[in-house]
């Protein structure tokens, strides 16, 4: 998924402390989410399915499982999980953004933007949604708008390496190569794993345009 912002589900998100104990186990889910973020997708999938049999009303867990399936290139399973999350909690912004990413992957850009818009309506400070909007704008060759979205995402969360990388690409398409290189270096320092793909974009060997 080139330049797509992963929906990084962190247990510091708003509203998690209010979850009744009988609907989830935050310590256990935290352990599984760390495993997922470390790249152990199959193990995280297995553990999440077991967890959700015990806590089927945990909307965050459904969202994380959706992310796992998206990373495993199983979009229909991801969609099912995100929709289940939203059925339990219509304001789960990570699930809204996840559905936006799925629609973007299918080139349904209007629907993708609708879901991103719903996510930032829930939380105007939710950086991944703005960075995802930047990807859509770049695909539509709305480069100035893309830079606005990418900068907003970075302002809200400068520590997410994917958000930093998206900002670098937005600067590239706006012909500001000095800032492109600055944020590319920053993304690499923060652990972004697709620097080679970014450089292919810069050399014209790959494009995120349709």
Briefly characterize the structure.
The protein contains 11 helices and no strands. It has 210 residues and is mostly helical. α1 (26-37) runs antiparallel to α2 (41-54), α3 runs antiparallel to α4 (75-88) and α8 (143-156) packs antiparallel against α9 (161-173).
Please, could you describe this protein's structure?
The chain has helices spanning 26-37, 41-54, 59-71, 75-88, 93-105, 109-122, 127-139, 143-156, 161-173, 177-189, 195-202. The chain contains 11 helices and no strands. It folds into 2 domains: 24-112, Alpha Horseshoe (Serine Threonine Protein Phosphatase 5, Tetratricopeptide repeat), CATH 1.25.40.10; 125-210, Alpha Horseshoe (Serine Threonine Protein Phosphatase 5, Tetratricopeptide repeat), CATH 1.25.40.10. Helix 1 (26-37) runs antiparallel to helix 2 (41-54), helix 7 packs parallel to helix 9 and helix 8 runs antiparallel to helix 9. The longest helix has 14 residues, at 41-54. The protein is an all-alpha fold. It is globular.
What is the topological layout?
Layout (H helix, E strand, L loop, with lengths): L25 H12 L3 H14 L4 H13 L3 H14 L4 H13 L3 H14 L4 H13 L3 H14 L4 H13 L3 H13 L5 H8 L8
- Strand proportion: under 5%
State the secondary-structure class.
mainly alpha
H/E series, N to C?
HHHHHHHHHHH
Major sheet description:
none
Query: What is the count of structural domains?
Result: 2
